Amino acid sequence: MVKKWFALMIALSVLVIGLVACGSSEDSSNEPSEEPETSDSEEATGEASGTLEIFSWWTGAGEEDGLLALIELFEEKHPEIEVDNAAVAGGAGTNAKAVLTSRMQGNDPPGTFQVHGGAELNDSWVAAGQMDPLNDLFEAEGWADKFPEELIELVSKDGNIYSVPVNIHRGNVLWYNTEIFEEHGLEVPTTFEEFFDVADALQEAGVTPLALGDREPWAATHLFETVLLGTLGADDYNKLWSGEVGMDDPRVEEAAEIFIRMLDYVNEDHSSRNWQDASQLVAQGEAAMNVMGDWAKGYFVNDLNLAVKEDFGWAATPGTEGTFMVITDTFGLPTGVENPEVVKSFLAVLGSQEGQDAFNPLKGSIPARVDADVSKYDEYGQETIEDFKSAELSPSLAHGSAANEGFLTQVNQAINIFVTQKDVDSFVDSLKQYQP
Ligand code: GAL
């Protein structure tokens, strides 16, 4: 069995690794290997100075803690650089991506911006020639063997590396309220059949089985893609994105049917809640389960003060045990920014062991680096770090890695209609029509 979908790109990998492999030494200076264009003061101090604009969608509860910790660390290391935290609220970049697009089109790029590794980076900004390669930074920082090859693939195109991954989030996680499961003597479901049995029992007991907050439609797409992963399995799910498996595969329709059946078990006000509001239902014991990426863990622990394993538990979503839906947030260097050295000095901190270990324990994600200090992570984090090593990896559609933004926008629209109209045929027709 092909373990990882990235195997298709091995040839590219060899090229990339070759480019970054030589002459690297970890934790040396933050200076790039090429001669930077420096101002007089930079020449004097060896440091870049100026303002750094960091653009993301990490604002508010459950989102910003990791970023703020990273900024604090950066400011300690670079007091001469002023940080402008230009975050635009809205889960999964609902609003930020639109703002970014108009800025990029208007030749007004932020200093650096959050972008998912995979299609979102490569098919949009890299393909349009709007990102500078970072091979020199990877070389200067000695990162060639510090990130998993699969992640380097996701941030590379045509032999160049275009961004630095700050984390790895897992998308296919079923969160549950431990007290509710204990009280009703229920086992956490691992298959769809078990899921519906548990959901029936909960509903009979007057508990909302599944929390959903799809005011921003991506949350429904997120749930749907985990179902798709469950019906197809990692190999064939991955082949959807290379075109080897079509949206006309019967397991895609099966996923649509399961998804619609799940909606019979969600909170009635799902369309007026966002992801945090849905997670809150589980935290407060008003719903038993929720399917969300592990930024929900950051929210449970840091914002709602829940105890890992005691107040909430987790499992792979039904049918996806042994697979890992990968979401990676990355930051790069847009072409034409005023002070590229300032941006690179931030990327150097973001990609360092210290930077990743400041960010990820708060964000709920695991470090993108292979050499993180695991003692800084809670039980969920440590388990997930291990799972990532052995699991089959699958790229997330809802979070930009699997397919281009155009397709994702169409799927988000189609799913929004699907949730209200519940018309399986017309939803599957849209998927077939739009499949990249
Ligand atoms: C994802 C992103 C995560 C988290 C989430 C909710 O797209 O990768 O870091 O922010 O959206 O907004």
TrEMBL record:
Compartments, as annotated in UniProt: Cell envelope
PROSITE patterns per the UniProt record, alphabetical: PROKAR_LIPOPROTEIN
SUPFAM superfamilies for this protein: Periplasmic binding protein-like II
Coiled coil spans: none
Disordered: region residues: 25-48
Signal peptide span: 1-23
Pfam families from the UniProt entry: SBP_bac_1 (PF01547)
Keyword Signal: yes
UniProtKB keywords: Signal, Transport
Biased composition (Acidic residues): 28-45
A GO CC annotation given for this chain: cell envelope
Similarity comment text for this entry: Belongs to the bacterial solute-binding protein 1 family.
Stated role: Part of a binding-protein-dependent transport system for a sugar.
PANTHER family membership: ARABINOSE-BINDING PROTEIN-RELATED, BINDING PROTEIN COMPONENT OF ABC SUGAR TRANSPORTER-RELATED
Protein name (Swiss-Prot/TrEMBL): Probable sugar-binding periplasmic protein
Organism this protein belongs to: Halalkalibacterium halodurans
